[in-house]
Specification:
Layout lengths: L1 H26 L5 E5 L15 E5 L3 E7 L2 E7 L3 H18 L8 H56 L9
Antiparallel strand pairs: 1-2, 3-4
Helix pairs in contact: 1-3, 2-3
């Protein structure tokens, strides 16, 4: 019983870490852009077939974080709290892989950082695979539901086309 509970807790922790890794990857995008319509909807410029979106970069802020004892400045369009969560997540991985020891030489830090990168990539790939399998199951279910709905619609059409029974003569 204890082993089953421990396994369930580990699975939950792995799923949470994978979600955090995906969020980290999204936060580390170089630049996010939002489409903005260059003219009002329905308004056309001369020689134009319609409004074209133009793009505007979201505002990036600098956030100071500490990872592996090093102060870093991260530019992000996410909030400071979120960037600190990401840094804490990476720093925690570094501490686990370094056995809690402070790494003083750059080659040792680089090695541990590469191992952390591999762990995060593994988490990301596993989460992507899980997401892809979930989407496949949802798509299969939707196809099945659509097929069933089409069959029922066809039955309704068939029933409506049938002549109504005439009452028997008394």
């Amino acid at each position: 019983m204890h082993l089953a509970r421990t396994t369930a807790v580990m699975r939950a922790m792995h799923a949470m870490q994978a979600m955090q890794a995906m969020q980290a990857m999204q936060a580390m995008q170089v630049m996010r852009v939002m489409p903005v319509m260059s003219s009002a909807p329905g308004q056309r410029r001369s020689g134009d077939s319609g409004p074209r979106p133009r793009y505007r970069a979201r505002v990036k802020r600098s956030v100071q974080v500490e990872i592996a004892g090093q102060q870093l400045t991260i530019r992000s369009d996410e909030g400071a709290d979120y960037v600190h969560q990401l840094a804490d997540y990476v720093d925690a991985h570094l501490r686990v892989l370094s056995g809690g020891r402070r790494i003083t030489n750059s080659s040792g830090l680089q090695r541990v950082a590469l191992l952390v990168a591999m762990q995060l990539a593994d988490e990301l790939f596993r989460e992507k695979d899980l997401h892809q399998r979930f989407r496949r199951r949802v798509t299969d279910r939707l196809v099945s539901l659509r097929r069933t709905l089409d069959e029922h619609e066809q039955r309704l059409v068939t029933l409506q086309e049938q002549p109504k029974d005439t009452p028997a003569a008394p």
